[in-house]
Design goal:
mainly alpha; Four Helix Bundle (Hemerythrin (Met), subunit A); HPT_dom_sf; Sig_transdc_His_kin_Hpt_dom; Hpt domain-containing protein
């Protein structure tokens, strides 16, 4: 998946590999930090608004990295959080989390 993301970033932004490596690193940091926020929120220390906000951030990072199908799942989680549907958001996160294990 790492190579797929880097190829996407190169194609979309037309940057050299040093810049692509930096951009990829920033994306990975964003996804990792957001996953940490979601873990805390789903452990009971957060609320639906926190899940919606983190889902929104995750969606943007994934779309920017060209991971559209995962970004769609993050959007579903964001919308479930906005609607206060915690169990739905949790179910989407359970599907999304294993696909993001490389972050």
């Amino acid at each position: 998946m790492k190579q797929r993301v880097k190829e996407h970033l190169c194609r979309v932004y037309g940057l050299g590999m040093d810049d692509i490596d930096e951009l990829y690193g920033i994306g990975c940091q964003t996804v990792g930090a957001t996953l940490s926020r979601l873990e805390i929120a789903f452990s009971g220390e957060g609320d639906a608004r926190e899940i919606a906000d983190a889902g929104h951030m995750l969606k943007g990072a994934l779309f920017n990295m060209g991971l559209l199908e995962l970004g769609d799942l993050a959007r579903d989680m964001e919308l479930a959080g906005k609607r206060g549907r915690m169990e739905e958001a949790r179910a989407v996160y359970a599907r999304l989390r294993p696909a993001l294990k490389f972050f």
